[in-house]
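Students often ask why we bother encoding 3D structure as a string. The short answer is that it lets us treat folding as translation between two languages. Here is a chain of 289 residues written in the first language.
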Amino acid sequence: MHNNKINQYFSLVKFSHTLFAMPFAFIGYFLALRLSDVDFSIKLLILIVLCMIFARNAAMAFNRYADRHIDLLNPRTAFREIPAGIIKPESALIFTFTNSLLFIITTWFINRLTFYLSPVALGIILGYSFTKRFTLLCHFVLGLGLSLSPIGAFLAATGRFNWLPLIFSGVVLLWVSGFDIIYSLQDEKFDLSLSLKSLPSKLGIRSSIIISSILHTFCTGLVLFAGIIANMGMYYWIGTIIFIGLLVYQHILVKPNDLTRVNLAFATVNGIASVIFAAFVVLDLIILR
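And here it is in the second language, the structure alphabet:
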């Protein structure tokens, strides 16, 4: 019974989707080791991972809580834990508060800068849940929230800013915004019926796919730019080729007249892309160090 409850909360927050941003936190951490005199610390790395988990748990649980009435009306999401009655709204809110508190507490044990900035990070990732009600920029707010992972990990390790992790944050911003537009294609008609804001509901499926492609093109440009200015090695470029290839592949999967493979493009392809790219980047950073 206890394990079943845990699994329900794992499902509520789509824990497997942590793979989207977590690998970029590792990139941020190992960039810190390369660009500063900071020594490797397994304790700090664990604290960073915990921050990522707590922050994302809070963001997803709050999103499900905030969207519970909308999810109930949407046939695609009516089976989710809150509208289906599996988890009570109050329980999801308590789960959100608990993870938010754990996130802030964990930042205290990292350094003062991350602690002072933790409410700002929470404000962005929790605030995203309301953006679809009033702005077409909702996709970019989600991207902004996840883009905090590389610069956040870098700040956790060094306590100061640097342009290179900020460029990788830009990569995440463009990458996530682009694939969130692809994901939202499924709800074009539903969003329009409730006057919810999304690019597909405003511009249509074909134009939204084009915008997503443009964002991923700029994302590719930033990945190449980061590799050049940082003088990255062979492993970085191998990871880059694979990452770009998977970006292209997800756009091959999704067509204006065929959205049956949106979930494959959204979850599977992007999860694989993130893990493989980060693995090669970290390997390169370790070898160069």
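Translate back mentally: The chain has 13 helices and no strands. Keep this in mind for the problem set.
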